[in-house]
Amino acid sequence: MSKPANTTSDFLDYASLLSPEEQSELKRIREYLATEIKPLAEKAWDASEFPKDLFKKLAPLGTAAGSYPEYSRVQVTPHSELLAGFIRIEMNKTDPSFAVAAGVHTGLAMGSVAGGGDEEQRQRWLPDMVDMSLIGAFGLTEPEGGSDVSGGMRTTATRDGDEWVLNGAKRWIGNATFADLVVVYARDTADDQVKAFVVEKGTEGFHAEKIQGKISLRTVENADLTLTNVRVPEKNRLQNINGFRDVAKILRDTRGDVAWQATGVAMRAYEVAREYATTRVQFGKPIGGFQMIQDLLVKMLSNVTAMLGMVIRLGQLAENKEDTSAQAALAKAFCTTRMRETVAWGRELFGGNGIVLEYEIAKLFADAEAIYSFEGSREMNTLIVGKNITGLSAFA
Ligand SMILES: Cc1cc2nc3c(=O)[nH]c(=O)nc-3n(C[C@H](O)[C@H](O)[C@H](O)COP(=O)(O)OP(=O)(O)OC[C@H]3O[C@@H](n4cnc5c(N)ncnc54)[C@H](O)[C@@H]3O)c2cc1C
After folding, report:
1. pLDDT at 320
2. Which GO terms describe its biological process (predicted)?
3. Nearest 5°: phi and psi at 171?
């Protein structure tokens, strides 16, 4: 008799690197996601509608508290880089759109306040952001400036006494339609340096328009922003962001997060494809018994296993507080490329069923496209690594 099938997508058992306490915390999170969050995903994606109470449901997971324990009102055990990464995998296996909305809040918006704010600003905003009663967004990209936004930011900030006046436009800003605060990056007209401003909900001159008709991450509300003479007090300017170099430090961490995210998406694609291959019968036997289908599955599993190895090592380096800018760029470019290949193989394995929402692979296939392009496209992350290994910049 042959051995029962090995169903894991973590073939080399990387999760055993977590401590027993971390493993049980991950199990708690996995179970909560399966019962409270997963059932909302498909309908929300199909309708392209963000569930208004999603953050209330995500708060008990404690992901923000684990990442920023010193700003949590309840005592929590800090999440190691590895645990945070494995939680990111679980969230993306549950639904990439929900994971992205949460990531914009905890990674990009909270990361901006934590890394760019002074202690008074961190104390002012982070405790409410930790318990998700205050939701954040991150406004960097512009309609005319995506990859090159570092050098050519068009949104301006002009000092006027104790206030700043912001003018310009932003594009793709996740959560901005409902966020309580949006971190807006703008170029200071006096010294040409990029600075960051916390724009609070309801501020006059700030307008967010939901981008319609997306084919990827449909549940995430991305917005076109217009800023017309938006007045922000100096106390809302993040005091430690004084140029794009400071923004790049925030992006370094979130690019690593996207590599973990891509790994989660690819793992889920492999899991649903493996399961389908054992149940879909053609020519009188499960398609998983055909050599060419096994080849697809093994290529998918090989990608997933390589991705896991890379993000785990990246996490270990980040734990030691090393500068991992180039390594995070390499992981983002590599893992999102492998993810895109993996979901495509999964979709192929499902035949016609691979293009309908009823089978999860279709959603993963579509969501991979946005993940591949945001937080720096594959090309831009490749050029960051290229500069690191040659000492020569191909883009600036
Ligand atoms: C779903 C989604 C969510 C997002 N969320 C946010 C958010 O919350 N906040 C935010 O600020 N931004 C957000 N973004 C923006 C995202 O970061 C940008 O889309 C991304 O940086 C690419 O910029 P772009 O779309 O303007 O493409 P472009 O910069 O116009 O690039 C177009 C193509 O040209 C290539 N290219 C450009 N320059 C070069 C070069 N020098 N060499 C080779 N190729 C090059 C690119 O790789 C790409 O393939 C989001 C985007 C998406 C799709």
Report:
1. 85
2. fatty acid beta-oxidation
3. -135, 145
DSSP 345: H
| Structure tokens given for 261 | 């995210």
85-100 in b/e form (b: 16+ CB < 10 A) is bbbbbbbbbbbbbbbb
Closest C-alpha to 61, from 45, 72, 49, 47: 72
Enclosing H/E stretch for 185: strand 181-188
Q: For residue 163, what are the β-bridge partners? A: 160, 233
**What residue ranges of the chain have pLDDT lower than 50?**
none
Q: Any idea where the domains of the chain sit in the sequence?
A: 14-130, 136-236, 244-390
Q: How far is the CA of 380 from the centre of ligand 1 (A)?
A: 9
111 lines ligand 1 (CB under 6 A): no
Backbone angles phi, psi at 202, to 5 degrees: 90, 0
DSSP 256: H
| Confidence (pLDDT) at 1 | 62
> From ligand 1's centre to the CA of 192, what distance in Å?
22
Architecture of domain 244-390: Up-down Bundle (1.20)
Tokens of 313: 């090592």
DSSP 3-state of 262: helix
**Is residue 138 within 6 Å of ligand 1 at its C-beta?**
yes
Six-digit token pair at 190? 């006096």
Give the Cα separation of 136 and 197 in Å (integer).
12
Contacts of 194 (CB under 8 A, 6+ apart): 150, 153, 185, 186, 187, 188, 241, 243, 244, 246, 247
CATH class of domain segment(s) 14-130? mainly alpha
Report the candidate in 302, 321, 299 with the shortest Cα–Cα distance to residue 310.
302
Q: Ligand 1, atom 11: nearest CA belongs to which residue?
A: 140
- List, for residues 144-191, the tens digit of each pLDDT value: 989 999 888 999 999 999 999 999 999 999 999 999 999 999 999 999
Determine contact, residues 155/169, Cβ cutoff 8 Å. yes
Which of the 8 DSSP states describes residue 37? I
Q: How many CA atoms lie within 13 A of 316 on its CB side?
A: 8
Q: Among 172, 181, 254, name the best residue to mutate to test ligand 1's pocket (greatest count of ligand atoms within 8 A of Cβ).
A: 172
Q: What sign results for the dihedral spanned by CA atoms 285, 338, 140, 120?
A: positive
Q: Which CATH architecture has domain 136-236?
A: Beta Barrel (2.40)
The values of phi and psi at residue 320, to 5°, are -85, 10
